[in-house]
Structures are given as C-alpha cells and as structure tokens.
Design a protein that fits this description.
CATH topology of the largest domain: D-Maltodextrin-Binding Protein, domain 2
Shape: globular
Distance between the termini: 24 Å
Helix content: 40-55%
CATH architecture of the largest domain: 3-Layer(aba) Sandwich
CATH superfamily of the largest domain: Periplasmic binding protein-like II
Number of strands: 14
Number of domains: 2
Structural class: alpha/beta
Length: 460
C-alpha cells in the first residue's frame, strides 16, 4: 500500500475523486473472496458482433486464458472488465481480473510457489523493483509502443536494473491548484502561468484584502504533515532537474543540502506568510479537506492539492466540479496547473500503475501490449473516472474537467516524477518528513533546523 493510500485511510477520506485511481481493499486474502472476475466474452475469437479489425495484431490465441493480479477491486474493477470486453470477444482470449487487498504478500507467495499470475498491476515502481527477478522483460513490440506513446520518465519507472519490464497503466496528478472560477471572475484575477506570477497574484489578492489568497492544511490524523511534503516535492521539481530530485529521494543529495534549503525557502514564501494564509500555526491542525472548504465558500482563493480533493469537496462541502469557463456557478470549483518557473517548464508530480508480466504466456504478452495501446486507453477513459499519461489519449474521451486538465498536464510535462516521500525510506518519507513539516508550521521551526532534523533520521 503506497504512502498516499495510507494517508487517505488515516483520515477516512473515502470519497475519493474518480480522477485518482486508487486501489480498493478486499475483505479477505482468500482468492475466493478477493474480487476475482472473469469476463465471458473470450470464448469465440472473431465474433461478428464486434468490429474486430482493430485486433488483428492479437489474433491466433483463441482459448487462451490470462490472469491479471491487482489491488484494484470493485467498483473500479468492473470498469476495467468492461474496457477489454471487445478485445476478449474478438481474440478469443479470456481475461480474469483478480483483485485483492493482499496483493504484495500474496504475489510473493505465488511467485515463490510457482503459481505466479500472468500479469500484475504494480501500484508503485518501488514494489515493481522488488519483484524484478520474477518479471519477464518487455517484448520488443511493447517497448516500441511505450517509447512512442509515453514520455521517457514513465518508461524509467517501469525499468529495473536497466531492463524494461512494465508498461504504464493509469495515472494520477498532484500538481494542481484548486480554485473557484466564479471567485476569480468576480475579482478579475487571471490564471498564473509561472511561479513568479503565482506569487504576484497572491500579493495582489492579499493587498485587495477581500479574500485570503491561500488556504492550507497539513492535518491528516496519524499522517499529519504529508500535505507539506507535497509542496516540497512540487517545488523541488520546479527548481531543479530530475536527476537532482532523484538524488534527493535516494539520499545522495543530503536532506539539509543548500539545494533543499532553497526549496523550503520558496515554500515558506506561501505557507509561512500570514498575509497569504492567515494564522500559520493553525495549518498543523487544519485538515487538508477543511482547508479546501474555503475555495467552495469563497473565503480563500487557492488551495494546492491533488486531483482526489474534488470528490471530497463535492461530498463534504457541496461543491460542484465545473469547467474553467463556468464563472457563474456558486460553489463551482476546478483546477489550474501549479506553474513552473517559466511557461516552457512544465514539471508534474503524480503517480500511476504499471503492468508487468510474470509468465511466458504469449496471450499475456498480447494483453500487456493491448493495455499500452491508444485504443484501450481511449476505451477505458470513455467509460469514465480514469485517465492515463498515454499520448494517444484523446481528451474528448475524458468527461471530468479536472481529469482533462490532468491529461493535458501529463501529455505536456517536461518532467514527471512520483511522490518523493513514497520512495524515500519509510522512516523518513512517512516519518520525520511528515513530523518536521508539521513542526515547521506549528512551532515556527526554522527552515534549516527542519532539514537538519530530517537529515539526522536518514538511514545511512
């Protein structure tokens, strides 16, 4: 279970927006109760009821069966099964979608016991690397497809020890600023396109004195502080390149290095500025959900948070997800991109799943290839509640306005990286990083002192 999933469980945020594809939880590790579901369409390859021309490259394996092992269960699982029903009908390949809460533990048992599933959907790249010795290298066709349809950063996350194994599946995005189009229109504010413009807009709103520029909350129960780590990660991507970000998350760049100090100094320009956020100390006890309420009622202008916030605000604050041009909707909210240092610099922070193959089953290789195709990505997105980083995904098939923005961010990203605290050692990423960011606001702890304290916990 990734750090983000633990965060959400810790605060009971079960009203997650459809734009973030998070794994559901089964009630038992017994595979009979794990969410294993077979589609019935794979019994007659080339059925005339479907247009099968698009599946010519996957023909010739009628009667084959492929198991996909995953953390994703119903209701999300049913949309995946629907998305490949025509593939099954046309190819004669039967796909079993096997979702379970015990994915990590049971995958280890099955690979060691010689009963590995054909395909596994890894919810984070770190876990994929744990199983690298059990994975089959990607076929040449799959590698060519990923090279053509995803940015190199995504391929990197499906690679271990120099071998490419796993193609991307779904995605999520964190580099969002939530706002109300009505509040912006009523006050004549423009959407900023650079970090400098974002700070200038914040100054303008503060000077006008009618609305608080930012609402910020780090509260999240036992996971309090994680929202602060996301600010650090997004700004790190804006100030430096991917190699520097990676060095920071692996410890090669010490946590108290001057480069990291520059990041927290930038974050402080917003988070520790009372003209922007009001009472800084209260950020530690204000939950990230509660902080978002301000953009719904018009008491604050902006809130930096991931795509899942929308579902929470719809359910808990009566918000309505709207398009940016819907400037007359009371309680209407949407997002703009958390800008880079220049208009040409468009880094993105987020996450996603990866499909790895664990058997020599030719049909499994065909399914893995199909799940990396533009055809499947568009079918899945059109069903709703999902998006990916695939360059061939047409935003016309993405109904949710926030998901449309997310796809545009991913397709135009100059740099993409996963949540840094998820790949740091657990005692740091889900430990001292959280607690020290909390102390930073609650106790007005000095920037350098915060970094020194985190560095002292790194397990060298």
């Amino acid at each position: 279970m990734s750090t983000l999933r633990r965060r959400l469980v810790a605060v009971g945020a079960i009203a997650i927006a459809s734009s973030l594809v998070l794994a559901g939880c089964a009630t038992s590790s017994d595979e009979a109760d794990s969410g294993s579901t077979s589609s019935s369409g794979g019994s007659s390859g080339g059925d005339s009821s479907a247009n099968c021309d698009a599946y010519a490259d996957y023909m010739g394996m009628e009667g084959s069966e492929v198991e996909i092992y995953t953390t994703i269960i119903d209701p999300e699982a049913s949309t995946f099964i629907e998305s490949y029903a025509e593939f099954e009908e046309c190819t004669g390949i039967t796909i079993t979608w096997n979702g379970t809460q015990e994915f990590e533990a049971q995958l280890a048992v099955r690979t060691e016991g010689g009963t590995a599933p054909d395909l596994a959907v890894f919810p984070q790249p770190g876990l994929l690397k744990v199983f690298k010795d059990s994975l089959k290298p990607a076929t040449a066709e799959l590698e060519a497809s990923v090279d053509a349809n995803y940015t190199p950063d995504w391929k990197l996350y499906g690679t271990a020890d120099g071998t490419f194994f796993a193609a991307p599946l779904g995605a999520n995005v964190k580099s969002f600023v939530w706002y109300s189009p009505k509040t912006f229109a009523d006050n004549g504010w423009d959407i900023p396109t650079t970090w400098a413009e974002l700070l200038a807009l914040s100054d303008q709103i503060a000077a006008e004195g009618n609305v608080q520029p930012w609402c910020v909350g780090f509260g999240s129960g036992a996971a309090t502080g994680w929202a602060g780590t996301d600010w650090m990660e997004d700004i790190m991507l804006r100030l430096y390149d991917g190699a520097t970000y990676d060095a920071w998350t692996t410890g090669e760049l010490p946590f108290n290095d001057p480069k990291v100090k520059a990041v927290i100094d930038e974050a402080a320009k917003v988070i520790k500025n009372p003209d922007y956020v009001g009472d800084v100390a209260s950020i530690a006890t204000t939950t990230f959900q509660e902080a978002g309420f301000g953009i719904v009622d018009g008491s604050c202008a902006m809130h930096r948070q991931a795509s899942f916030l929308g579902g929470i605000l719809v359910g808990d604050a009566g918000a309505t997800i709207v398009n940016p041009e819907d400037t007359d909707v009371e309680g209407g909210i949407t997002t703009f991109y958390f800008p880079g240092v220049s208009e040409d610099s468009k880094p993105a922070l987020g996450g996603g799943e990866f499909v790895g193959r664990l058997t020599d089953n030719d049909a499994a290789a065909a399914v893995q290839l199909y799940l990396a195709s533009a055809d499947w990505n568009n079918k899945k997105a059109a069903i709703g509640g999902w998006f990916s980083a695939h360059k061939g995904l047409d935003t016309a098939n993405v109904g949710d306005p926030v998901n449309k923005v997310a796809v545009e961010i991913l397709q135009n990203a100059t740099l993409f990286r996963f949540d840094g605290s998820d790949v740091m050692p657990a005692g740091v990423g889900a430990g001292s990083f959280w607690t020290e960011m909390t102390a930073w606001v609650a106790e007005d702890k000095d920037n350098q002192a915060v970094l020194d304290a985190i560095y002292a916990t790194w397990p060298y």
